[in-house]
Amino acid sequence: TVRGLAALTLSLLGTEEARLRLEDLSGDDTEVHLYLERKMGVRRVSELAEQALATVRK
């Protein structure tokens, strides 16, 4: 859960260091239970990291 939340938080920073950490997390297939977009769901850390990377790279 901590790594999943880290991916979400790193996306807000938008720094080069955040991008490097997100790349590390992009290989993590651990499932995380999160409440996002008004519903409970299961996401993989790698999925959250990839979405965050797309934000940081813009």
Features:
58 residues, alpha+beta, two-stranded antiparallel ribbon, 2 strands, 21% strand, globular
Short description:
This protein is an alpha+beta fold.
Q: What report would you give on this structure?
A:
The structure is a single chain. With 58 residues, this protein is an alpha+beta fold. It has one domain (2-57). The chain has helices at residues 2-13, 16-25, 45-57, and strands at residues 31-36, 39-44. The chain has a two-stranded antiparallel sheet. The longest helix is centred in the last third of the chain and has 13 residues, at 45-57. The radius of gyration is 11 Å and the shape is globular. The mean pLDDT is 92.
The sequence of SSEs as H and E is HHEEH
Which strand order does the major sheet show?
1-2
Number of domains: 1
Helical segment count = 3
Q: How confident is the prediction overall: mean pLDDT?
A: 92
Gyration radius, in Å? 11 Å
Structural category is alpha+beta
Q: pLDDT under 50 segments (min length 5)?
A: none
How many beta-strand elements?
2
Give a quick account of the main beta sheet: strands, pairing sense, barrel closure: 2 strands, antiparallel
What proportion of the residues form beta strands (DSSP E)?
Answer: 15-25%
Shape: globular
| Cα end-to-end separation | 26 Å
Q: Residue share in helices? A: 55-70%
Topology:
Blueprint: H1 2-13, H2 16-25, E1 31-36, E2 39-44, H3 45-57
Helix pairs in contact: 1-2, 1-3, 2-3
